[in-house]
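Narrative summary of target 7.
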Amino acid sequence: MMSDTIEYNFCFVDKNRAILILEGKDKLDFLQALTTNNIENIPKEDMVYTAILSPQGKYLYDFFVFSLSDNEIFIDIHKSRASAIKKFLEFYKLNSDVFISDRRCQIVISSKKEKMYSFADPRAKTMGWRCYNFKKELKIPDQGFDDFQINRLKNVVPETGVELIPEKSYILELNFEKLQGVDFKKGCYIGQEVTARMKHKATLKNRLYCGYIQRSPKNADDRKVYSNDKAVGDVHSIFNNYCLIKIKEDFKDAELTVFGEPVTLLN
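Modeled conformation, tokenized:
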């Protein structure tokens, strides 16, 4: 169980998120059959982080799932993917007793448990609490966003649309197992065969790492990672001197540079 506070201090409204609600007697079985994580006990447990994949095992959507009663399931997803996942769910529900709708909500990311519906971020302790206000919007002064972003990078948490690219990304290359976003013991879901094969029968060719650049780069145009002038990966998120880079696993112990500066892997 996560304590009500953590050592970092941040609180801000995340305006890049959207909330969908699933209702109907088939809602749980319907979503369980699609997602990489086990959500069967979500009405009695805390929030779950999960994804939906393509039949080829590539990333389509990542989101949080939670419930406040037996009557509905809430999906917290990046706003840029909300319309697409709604159409996806409508397509797959067929004759299932499932109703999908939007819900207006103020989403607050905080290092402490706020006086609203609050869930500990399941991806990492230092990511704090995800808090949901379904009533009148509150005036919340933003603070500590820099701390939150550095926490995200240090914990190698990929961002929708930055590291997580629909139809291109593989979630196991992007730290999903450590972030508790996939359950290898649950039943079938779309893309499971490819994901299980990557886990049990293959060695990952690429992996996401947090890198630290000792000197702030003067030129950030070339977003390749180099080893002896050979491109071995790509730079994605950058914040202050931290970055998320996806590199070929064969080069994780090599001397690497980004933007012409040495980079040290932190994980």
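The helical segments are 27-32, 79-93, 145-154, 192-200.
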